[in-house]
Amino acid sequence: MESWLFLGVILLIAFIAKNQSLLIATIAVLVLKLIPHSDKFLALLNKQGIKWGVTLISATILVPIATGDIVLKDLLNTLKSPLGWVATICGVLVAVLSSKGVGLINQSPEVTVALVFGTIMGVVFLKGVAAGPVIAAGITYCIMQVIQVVTNH
């Protein structure tokens, strides 16, 4: 019963904040909960959802290349500007942070609660996008590594 209430509160917050992505995601999870014996699918979604989401996002990013809207010349031109270099470096950093974040989530699943809460707060109150839990986990991992180094000396 508590999960229904919690999801209902998130649904209400998403509605008030007019956040369509969070609204759709919450409704989808609520509908899945209504389906008898959906526990196995919810567990599968919990375990594989990030991989599926990353795959979908990756496919979306590749579409302009597939349609010819972005060609190799565009990449080479972009790398001639500071913005292109900064974007490339940030892309590398996000990929590394995400890998560390996935590792942290696998190692300490309890951190997911705080990550989800923080993501919802950022989406609702700061007009963020809910694509960041894995990156947030990566940042958390890095901060924890720094704290560990500092406290061990």
From TrEMBL:
Its main location: membrane. Keywords: Cell membrane, Membrane, Transmembrane, Transmembrane helix. The chain crosses the membrane at residues 49-71, 83-105, 111-144. It holds the Pfam family DUF441. It is found in: Cell membrane. Belongs to the UPF0756 family. This is UPF0756 membrane protein P7D85_11970.
